[in-house]
Design a protein that fits this description.
Oligomer: single chain
Number of strands: 12
Shape: flat
Structural class: alpha/beta
CATH superfamily of the largest domain: P-loop containing nucleotide triphosphate hydrolases
Strand order of the largest sheet: 3-4-5-2-1-6
CATH topology of the largest domain: Rossmann fold
Largest sheet: 6 strands, mixed
Distance between the termini: 16 Å
Strand content: 15-25%
Length: 448
């Protein structure tokens, strides 16, 4: 991180203002070369009016902000050039910086430097990315909680608990004569691990919900042909996106759409009717439907209320019995002939009159315990990376619990407990590897 990086930090388009950001030791001197006024004498956190100059030619009228280390986003010297928005002007300013010795920043490199210089941890870095990409008020609040270290503090408290157990084990092993210290026994470790497991499981439960809030709930709509799947999708998104006819097999490919229910994003997949067919194209659609079934959070099974269950209906109910699902009984305005009241999560309705649609929306949130979300619910993990690491901690806790019952020596158990401590450090970024860091920050936008 010895070089100077530069990038356009605002969206490159026609607009009032664009910001070109520069970071690194020597940033002020570099920008001073192409600026009409003296920047070297400016104090930190000041703005100076002037022109960007190229060989005595005025390129743009700008405001230049100077931020001196260490009180900056990257903890390095930062200069931000506020120029007029537009493609030609903004690119010209950036090109002048590159010609004078700066390097084009990689995606997320400013935030990466903030992390590597110790200003933020990995959870805060992820939260910054989430804030930029947030599409709902809930995801915005969740990201702010991450930036304010509320999530980091939760994980560090767990890590401190593990560190205390490890330190007591070390003292007992290395200095057994210190009788004032707590004597670590298998029963004491078992009790501590039990309390720790309860906290981990609680965080995991809440974190899975947070990930659904962040990524959206993936909902597949399934059923045999012509039961109203496409009509249901259209009702949920409140527009006619899917083609609806009375011809069986109309939907042959996956139709995707998005809607919001109480600020929760719902990613909908209207699938081809699942049935045996000789139509080659329809067969492909049926296969895609079955593939979607394995990659969703919730299955909505659509059945006709005015018909008895067919063999295809029964097969679909059987293959989804272990999935989180809701049964939507359509055409409730006709004589009821279906016999399915012994199954949970049933909603009766009608895609022609919209009857039952609001109940279905409420049921979707209820099955994931998302109908009443508090600010406290938004202070947990929300990425696949962090949840996976916490799941590994949970698995190791089970291993430790098992080894305790086998009366394994405590110094051997300590190895597994130390691994939990390391994994928690990976969540916050206190422990990391270069490959992980590079992969994570490449998903950021340029200039951030």
């Amino acid at each position: 991180m010895e070089d100077i990086i530069a990038s356009i930090s605002t969206s490159l388009s026609v607009g009032a203002i664009s910001i070109v950001r520069v970071s690194g030791a020597g940033s002020v001197d570099l920008v001073d070369k192409i600026f009409s006024n003296d920047l070297k004498s400016k104090q930190s956190h000041t703005i100076t009016y002037g022109y960007i100059i190229d060989n005595n030619e005025k390129i743009d009228e700008v405001l230049v902000s100077v931020f001196l280390a260490p009180k900056t986003y990257t903890k390095e010297d930062i200069v931000e050039i506020n120029c007029h928005g537009g493609y030609a002007t903004t690119n010209k300013v950036l090109q002048l910086l590159l010609d004078n010795g700066a390097r084009l920043a990689q995606p997320g490199e400013f935030t990466k430097r903030a992390y590597l210089n110790g200003r933020i941890d990995l959870l805060e870095a992820e939260a910054i990315s989430d804030l930029i990409n947030s599409k709902t008020e809930l995801t915005r609040k969740m990201a702010i909680n991450g930036i304010e270290k509320k999530i980091s503090n939760t994980i560090r408290e767990l890590r401190d608990e593990i560190a205390l157990i490890l330190s007591n084990i070390e003292v007992n092993i290395d200095y057994p004569e210190y009788t004032d210290e707590v004597e670590i026994t298998h029963n004491l470790i078992k009790e501590n691990i039990k309390n720790f497991r309860n906290k981990i499981n609680y965080i995991l439960k809440k974190s899975k919900n947070n990930m659904l809030i962040k990524e959206g709930i993936k909902v597949g709509i399934f059923g045999r042909p012509n039961v109203g799947k496409s009509s249901l999708l259209n009702r949920l998104i409140e527009e006619d996106k899917a083609i609806v006819t009375n011809i069986e097999g109309t939907t042959r490919d996956i139709v995707e759409a998005t809607c919001k229910i109480d600020d929760i994003v719902i990613n909908l997949y209207d699938t081809a009717g699942i049935r045996k067919t000789d139509d080659v194209i329809e067969q492909i659609g049926v296969k895609k439907s079955l593939d979607i079934l394995n990659n969703i959070d919730l299955a909505i099974i659509v059945l006709n209320g005015n018909e008895k269950l067919t063999e295809y209906d029964k097969e679909l109910l059987d293959i989804t019995k272990d999935k989180i699902r809701i049964i939507f009984i359509n055409k409730d305005d006709l004589d009821k002939k279906i016999d399915i009241d012994n199954i949970d999560n049933i909603v009766y309705g009608n895609t022609l009159t919209e009857k039952g649609i609001d109940k279905l929306k409420s049921k979707i949130l209820k099955v994931f315990d998302l109908e009443k979300i508090t600010d406290e619910d938004l202070t947990f993990l929300s990425s696949a990376r962090t949840i996976s690491l916490l799941n590994k901690c949970s698995n190791i806790i089970d291993k430790v619990d098992n080894t305790i019952t086998q009366d394994i020596p405590i110094d051997m158990i300590e190895i597994d407990i130390k691994e939990i401590w390391n994994l928690l450090g990976e969540i916050t970024g206190d422990n990391y590897n270069d490959e992980l860091i590079d992969k994570m920050f490449e998903n950021f936008c340029l200039g951030k």
